[in-house]
Every structure is written in structure tokens, then in C-alpha cells.
Write a structure and sequence with these properties.
521 residues, four-stranded antiparallel beta sheet, rod-shaped, 27 strands, 4 domains, disordered N terminus
Length: 521
């Protein structure tokens, strides 16, 4: 039909669609017309494609699941480790894979050894002194923390912590607190063990016969520098290093008193001599009393008592009856005359610089010493005592021969060099004895009298102590005053005689009856 358009060949249509030139399309072989596909074929192809896609998707899911499973197992295997994780260290020691108890026992054993070694050691001349330190660890908590590391929480988080240990190990250090008790007491015990006090030279003995001293040598001591030792111990505790052995610094302690000093210091301090009477009994008493303290050593600060040294002066001790004053009457009794010994001793020790503690005056002045320089004794009522004011012993030496009693004092001087002591006394006043006391005595013949006690005027005296240097008195002061009481005469008289005729007076010459006087001169 003319109006019908010429139907293009399918090939040409395709070429047009492809935009190719017709001429190029003409060169291609002519295509065969396609076959028509049925609807069933298309469905089958689609189903096949879907099946393939589902198969691929299933495989991918299965692979993904498998990989996830494998990863999970890997993480579980990494975290499910018995003991400590690899890469865990305690105090720098690898404990990975080891059990809690094994690691704990090992660490505690090591730390106990360390604690046992923390001992302060001081050594001196082969003697060792030790003081253990106290060590306190936080080990138990540290081991628990190290063991439980990464054992709690999400699996993946735990896995990351565990795997990180492979490249970055984690250390759990323990902490030790060290303390030392009783350091002061420890130092003091060392001081007591090592210190040796210096020994001063001493007077070993005194030979009374030769009046010479025997001396012991001085011995220097030693003393630990306790403050320095304490400082060394404190530094050791602070540093925590107990490996060193400390040696204390010990200083020599010189003696205070040397033998040379004693030889120069100990000398005759004072001497005093009195003359006795010709009475053999009295002289026996003087000899016995003075011999009782011949060679006596009076310690520094000691109070010497003559009554304590001699005790009662009795006939059992050899004392004789000799003149002694009682109630103003001169009578014979055992030990009479020993007041001369105490008076001589007084004059010697006061000149040696000793302190007079107790001294009594007599009933009247003695004729063997100056007024105010006597010292009466009467056991046990009256005593003579003095105190050694020196810081060294003093030695008393007595000598009695040819009616001469000498007492010497030896020791360390208490006075400055060149100074001496002397005494001076004065009679200040006289005390009247008063009227005689007349006492009737029927045993006497009529008109007869008998003087029982002679009368004596009393006296007051002052005794001065003088300090003399280079022959001049540089100081004088009152030592004491003495009152010698007045003594009233006691005269017994008989009955009145009967009156007799008065004879013619016969001139007579007065006679000297002083021997029968009732008054002491």
C-alpha cells in the first residue's frame, strides 16, 4: 500500500539507536531475527538469579558468622587464662601464667628475707649490737589487684587490656613502710656498754710513820658520741639501706686529777703542838686518845667527831684516873686530861681551813693553849666536831713524845696558794665570882672550915680567825666568843667553938697561907 510506511529492518533500527552511520552498519552482516522467548523462560531465569543471589548472600552471612565466632573464641581464649595474665609483673618480676598461691608465697618469702635483713648493726672492738627494723608491706592487696587485672568487665574490653600487655607489660609494685622503735634506748645501751669513765689518780695510802703518800695513776676513759651515732642511724632508716655496719665515734675522756697533780697538791696543811704536864696518868690518857685517830682519813664533806672515834674513855680501854673538871671542881676520873687532845686537834684543823661544827669552852681557861682556843669534851655530852671542806680526803697524824702532843693535817689545800690561817683571842671582860657560899658541916670540928670548891672569876673572850698572805693579815673575822663562867667558892664550916679566955696578945709575923686559899689564882 502506498500510504504504508516501509518498515525498517531491525538491524537498521538498532543502528539508528546506536547512532552509528548507516554506511558503517551496512558493512555488518545481516543479523538473524531474534527468537521470541516464552514467559516461563524468563521466570526461570529470574528464579535462578534469585537463587544464586540467595546462595551468595547465605555464604557471605555464614562466612561472617564464622569469622565472628572465631574472633569470639579468640577473645575468650585470651582472657580465660588461669593465674596472672602474661605481661603482669609484681615488683618487676614476671608472674604471667603463674598461680596466685605460688606467686604469693614466693613474694612473701622474698619480702620476709628483705625484712630480716633490715637490721641496724653497730660494731665496736669486736662487739656487735643490733636493732631490727619493722617492715610493713601492702603485698596482699597488690597481689589481689594484679591477679584480678582485666578479669572483670565486657569481654572485648578485657581482651583489649590483655592484648595490650603483650606490648606494654604492667607492673604492680609493692610498698614497704620501715620503722624502727627504741632507737634512743638502743643508742643508750651502746653508750653504757662502751663508755668507760675516767679514773682520777688517788691517794692509795698514807704512811703515818714516814708521813708520805702513795698514789695510784690516773686512767683516761672513753665516751661514745651518742648524738652522732643517732644521726647515722636516722640516715640509715631514711635511706632504707641497712647493709652498712656502723662504727661509733668514741672519744677519749681525760682524767680530771692526774698523779702529778696529787703529788703536788697533797701536802702538810697545818700542824699544832701543846705541852702536857708531868702526870703519868694524864699523859697515858692523852696518848690513848690521840692514837685513836692517828692516820684517820676524813672524806670530803665528812664530819669528824672525836667522841665517835674514841667512844667512851674507860678503864677497860686503858684510860687512867686523872684530873677532870666537874661542876667547877677538879676531880679524878678515867680519861682525865683528854681535853688537851681535842684542843690541840681544834687548833690544827682550824688552821688547815676546816669548818668547826661543834666546840665547847672549859669551865675556865686552859693553861696549855691561849684563852678562847680550847675545846672541851665530855662523853657523850660535849663533843668536838669539824667538817672536811676540801674536795679531797684529809689525813690526821698524831705524835706524842716527851710531853709534846703534835697533830698534823695532810691533804689538798682549801686555801689559795700562799694563804695561811692563824688565830687571835682577846679577854674582853671579867665576871666577879661573888661571895663565898658557906655550908654547915657538922662533921667538922668546932671552928673548922673546909674549902669544897675554890672560887674563880669568870671571863669573856673573843677568838678571831686571821687570813694571812705574804706575812700580812688580809682578813680577820670573829670565829666565836667564849664565856668562862664565874665560880663561887663553896666552904664548909663546923660548929661555933666555945669562947675561951682572951690570952695576952703575943706579937706575931703574918704567914703565907696561899696554899689554903679558897680562891683560884
Amino acid at each position: 500500500m502506498a500510504n504504508q510506511k516501509k518498515k525498517k529492518h531491525p538491524q537498521e533500527e538498532n543502528e539508528m539507536l546506536d547512532g552509528r552511520q548507516p554506511e558503517l552498519q551496512d558493512e555488518l552482516p545481516e543479523a538473524q531475527p531474534p527468537r521470541r522467548r516464552s514467559g516461563r523462560s524468563v521466570v526461570a531465569i529470574v528464579l535462578l538469579v534469585l537463587a544464586i543471589l540467595m546462595f551468595i548472600a547465605g555464604g557471605a552471612l555464614g562466612l561472617l558468622y564464622y569469622q565472628s565466632y572465631q574472633n569470639l573464641e579468640k577473645m575468650k581464649a585470651a582472657v580465660d587464662v588461669q593465674g596472672f595474665y602474661p605481661g603482669i609483673t609484681i615488683d618487676g618480676q614476671d608472674v604471667g601464667g603463674r598461680s596466685y598461691e605460688e606467686v604469693r608465697e614466693e613474694i612473701l618469702t622474698r619480702q620476709q628475707a628483705e625484712a630480716d635483713a633490715r637490721v641496724i648493726t653497730v660494731s665496736y672492738e669486736g662487739q656487735t649490737y643490733t636493732l631490727p627494723a619493722q617492715s610493713s608491706y601492702d603485698t596482699e592487696q597488690v597481689i589481689v589487684d594484679a591477679y584480678n587485672y582485666a578479669k572483670e568487665g565486657e569481654l572485648e574490653q578485657r581482651y583489649q587490656l590483655v592484648t595490650a600487655l603483650q606490648s606494654q607489660p604492667l607492673d604492680f609494685p609493692t610498698t614497704c613502710t620501715v620503722s624502727v622503735d627504741g632507737v634512743d634506748a638502743f643508742v643508750q645501751s651502746i653508750v653504757q656498754a662502751i663508755d668507760v669513765p675516767a679514773q682520777d689518780a688517788t691517794v692509795g695510802s698514807f704512811d703515818v710513820e714516814t708521813k708520805t703518800f702513795a698514789f695510784t695513776d690516773e686512767v683516761n676513759g672513753r665516751s661514745v658520741d651518742a648524738q652522732l651515732l643517732r644521726s647515722q642511724i636516722d640516715q640509715m632508716i631514711e635511706s632504707g639501706d641497712f647493709t652498712a655496719t656502723l662504727t661509733p665515734v668514741v672519744n677519749e675522756v681525760p682524767a680530771t686529777v692526774t698523779r702529778a697533780q696529787l703529788e703536788q697538791q697533797n701536802q702538810l696543811l697545818a700542824t699544832f703542838t701543846t705541852t702536857t704536864t708531868s702526870s703519868s696518868s694524864r699523859n697515858t690518857n692523852i696518848r690513848l686518845c690521840s692514837e685513836a685517830f692517828n692516820g684517820y682519813v676524813v672524806a670530803p664533806g665528812e664530819v669528824f667527831s672525836i667522841n665517835t672515834v674514841t667512844g667512851p674513855r674507860t678503864t677497860a680501854k686503858g684510860y687512867k684516873n686523872a684530873g677532870s673538871i666537874q661542876n667547877g671542881i677538879l676531880i679524878d676520873e678515867p680519861g682525865g686530861g683528854v681535853c688537851q687532845v681535842s684542843s690541840t686537834l681544834f687548833n690544827a684543823v682550824v688552821r688547815a681551813g676546816m669548818e668547826i661544827v661543834e666546840r665547847w669552852g672549859h669551865s675556865w681557861p686552859s693553861d696549855y693553849v691561849k684563852i678562847g682556843m680550847d675545846a672541851a669534851i665530855d662523853y657523850p655530852a660535849k663533843d668536838f666536831k669539824f667538817r672536811n671542806t676540801s674536795d679531797a680526803p684529809i689525813y690526821l697524824v698524831t705524835h706524842f713524845e716527851d710531853r709534846k702532843l703534835t697533830i698534823e693535817v695532810y691533804g689538798k689545800p682549801v686555801l689559795e696558794e700562799g694563804m695561811t690561817i692563824d688565830l687571835r683571842s682577846t679577854t674582853d671582860s671579867t665576871i666577879s665570882r661573888g661571895d663565898d657560899k658557906m655550908v654547915f658541916d657538922a662533921s667538922l670540928a668546932p671552928g673548922q672550915t673546909k674549902t669544897v670548891r675554890k672560887g674563880r672569876n669568870g671571863k669573856k673572850s673573843t677568838t678571831y680567825i686571821q687570813y694571812i698572805k705574804d706575812g700580812k693579815v688580809v682578813e680577820e673575822k670573829v670565829l666565836f666568843t667564849t664565856t668562862y663562867p664565874a665560880i663561887t667558892a663553896i666552904v664548909n664550916y663546923g660548929p661555933e667553938p666555945e669562947p675561951e679566955p682572951t690570952p695576952e696578945p703575943i706579937p706575931t709575923t703574918p704567914s703565907d697561907d696561899s696554899e689554903h686559899s679558897n680562891v683560884w689564882p
